C-alpha cells in the first residue's frame, strides 16, 4: 500500500533546513514505500517550494511527479460529501487536510505521513479508531 503524504512531508524532503527534513528522510529510507500525494496538496507544495526555496525547487518537484517518484491520487466524486462533513466536524481542517482524511478513509489506510500532528491526531476517521502518524 502506498504511503499517503501531506504537504509538510513533501516540503520537508526538499528543504534541508526544515526541522522535519531528517526525520522524514530517515523514515522514508527505512520504509521504501511509494509516496501517494493527494492532488489537493500539489499547488500548496509547489507554492511553498517556489516561495521559500526558489523556482528550481518547484521545477524539481514537478519533475519528480513526472518520473513517478510521487504518485498522485485524484479526489473522487464520492469524496466531496465526506470532505464537507469532515470540514464541518473539524473546524480546524481546511479543504486540503479534509481531502487527505477522506482519501485515507476511501483507501482504507490508517497511516499518514504528516508533519501536522496537532490536526491529524484530533481526527477520528470512520474506518479506524485513529490514524498512525509517521515521518
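^ Assign residues to that structure.
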Amino acid at each position: 500500500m502506498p504511503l499517503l503524504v501531506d504537504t509538510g512531508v513533501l516540503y520537508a524532503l526538499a528543504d534541508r533546513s526544515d526541522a522535519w527534513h531528517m526525520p522524514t528522510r530517515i523514515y522514508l529510507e527505512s520504509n521504501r514505500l511509494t509516496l501517494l500525494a493527494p492532488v489537493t496538496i500539489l499547488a500548496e507544495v509547489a507554492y511553498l517550494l517556489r516561495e521559500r526555496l526558489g523556482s528550481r525547487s518547484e521545477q524539481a518537484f514537478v519533475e519528480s511527479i513526472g518520473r513517478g517518484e510521487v504518485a498522485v491520487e485524484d479526489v473522487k466524486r464520492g469524496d466531496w460529501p465526506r470532505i464537507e462533513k469532515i470540514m464541518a466536524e473539524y473546524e480546524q481542517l481546511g479543504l486540503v487536510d479534509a481531502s487527505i482524511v477522506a482519501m485515507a478513509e476511501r483507501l482504507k489506510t490508517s497511516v499518514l505521513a504528516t508533519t501536522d500532528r496537532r490536526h491529524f491526531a484530533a481526527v477520528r476517521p470512520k474506518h479506524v479508531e485513529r490514524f498512525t502518524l509517521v515521518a
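The chain has seven helices and five strands.
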